[in-house]
């Protein structure tokens, strides 16, 4: 699909300026699907080529909205890192949108500037990729955004296009969040402000429109460091029936996990089952791969002692590839913490090993776990097995004898 994006997106953007609201909504949905499933750099190129300079402000509004969605998906850190085909195209485009004559497109552009401005390399990126005559204007806009935020902008960015009918209420706008009010000034907010934020976020998460729920997820990504307590809302999005919301949530999880690190420990007991039970056996390859990446992010960013018991319990009762995947993850954790938490490894990983050795079939994952435990415990592993039934001891000896 990537090779056909430019032509397809140009046509869809034209439909975004159609007078028929149903046509606009269908075009918007198609562009949303593109942003979620196609290569980000290709999406970006197609959107900018098709709509950035269009004379129709509705087309520019639509372009700005989906570019903003891409910015959230790609992540600020990657954008300011100078990623080829992304940073060099995106930064000038955001600068242009931030000065657009359309209030909607202008607001999207300024939201993106504010989102990126938190990155330490942001000013260097502006210097490198913006023309000299434009640089001073954009820096002035950024300084204003940092001090005053977006409060003076009259338009909700998600209301630019694609408003959807709600049953019984006619056409309504979904609830919206203001990034400046809830992110840039988070350090000085009162308890009332935070409660108001959580109420509005709950409104997004509870919306019947899946796009509003995705917007809520994106808001959590943007504000996760300031509002870690709202992260529990993510688990509900992982277990709902809409696969688009599931996938989007899984895809942004690594970014949230990296931002929160050890603060994630308080939610892993809810989060891990939501990932594992719902998605680690998924036949949908993008969802399965995203679930694996989320689990890997947890292992990389948290003290693995928070995960060992949870992974062992899940691996014992799962079936299919999810069981094999989690056994491999337990083996990795054993290697990570074996030297500093030997007793914990014995108490929590050995029951899983005895369970695996007691069943009729033994996968390569069982061999991996056995190898990891043998490396950490040596001959003590066989000694611990002496209390187990004969068939388990025999299987263990057979596996150990086959290890390199």
Automatic annotation (TrEMBL):
Comp. bias (Polar residues): 166-175
GO cellular component terms given for this protein: cilium; cytoplasmic microtubule
One Gene Ontology term from the biological process aspect of the record: microtubule cytoskeleton organization
Species the sequence originates in: Gouania willdenowi
One Pfam family cited in the UniProt record for this chain: CLASP_N
Domain named TOG: residues: 181-404
Residue numbers spanned by region Disordered: 149-190
GO molecular function, one term: microtubule binding
Record-given protein name: TOG domain-containing protein
PANTHER family referenced in this protein's UniProt entry, alphabetically: CLASP, CRESCERIN-LIKE PROTEIN CHE-12
């Amino acid at each position: 699909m990537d090779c056909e994006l430019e032509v397809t997106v140009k046509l869809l953007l034209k439909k975004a300026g159609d007078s028929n609201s149903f046509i606009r909504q269908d075009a918007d949905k198609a562009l949303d699907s593109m942003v979620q499933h196609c290569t980000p750099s290709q999406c970006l190129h197609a959107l900018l080529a098709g709509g950035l300079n269009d004379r129709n402000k509705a087309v520019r509004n639509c372009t700005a909205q989906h570019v903003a969605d891409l910015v959230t998906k790609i992540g600020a850190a990657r954008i300011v890192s100078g990623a080829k085909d992304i940073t060099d195209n995106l930064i000038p485009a955001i600068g242009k949108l931030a000065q657009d004559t359309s209030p909607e497109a202008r607001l999207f552009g300024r939201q993106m500037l504010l989102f990126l401005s938190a990155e330490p390399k942001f000013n260097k990126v502006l210097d490198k990729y913006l023309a000299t005559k434009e640089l001073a204007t954009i820096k002035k806009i950024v300084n204003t955004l940092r001090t005053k935020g977006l409060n003076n902008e009259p338009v909700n960015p998600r209301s630019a296009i694609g408003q959807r009918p709600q049953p019984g209420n006619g056409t309504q706008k979904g609830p919206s969040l203001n990034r400046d009010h809830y992110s840039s000034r988070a350090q000085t907010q009162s308890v009332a402000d935070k409660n108001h934020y959580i109420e509005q976020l709950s409104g997004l998460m509870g919306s019947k429109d899946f796009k509003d729920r995705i917007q809520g997820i994106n808001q959590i990504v943007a504000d996760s460091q300031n509002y870690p307590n709202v992260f529990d809302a993510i688990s509900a999005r992982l277990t709902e029936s809409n696969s688009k919301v599931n996938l989007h949530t899984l895809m942004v999880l690594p970014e949230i996990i990296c931002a929160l690190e050890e603060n994630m420990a308080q939610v892993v007991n809810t989060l891990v089952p939501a990932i594992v039970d719902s998605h680690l056996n998924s036949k949908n390859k993008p969802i399965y791969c995203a679930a694996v990446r989320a689990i890997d992010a947890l292992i990389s960013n948290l003290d693995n002692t928070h995960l060992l018991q949870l992974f062992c319990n899940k691996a014992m009762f799962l079936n299919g590839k999810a069981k094999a995947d989690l056994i491999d993850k337990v083996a990795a954790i054993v290697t990570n913490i074996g030297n500093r938490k030997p007793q914990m490894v014995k108490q929590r990983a050995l029951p899983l090993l005895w369970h695996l050795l007691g069943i009729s079939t033994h996968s390569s994952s069982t061999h991996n776990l056995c190898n990891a435990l043998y490396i950490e415990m040596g001959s003590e592993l066989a000694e611990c097995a002496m209390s187990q039934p004969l068939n388990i001891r025999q299987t263990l000896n057979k596996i150990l004898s086959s290890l390199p």
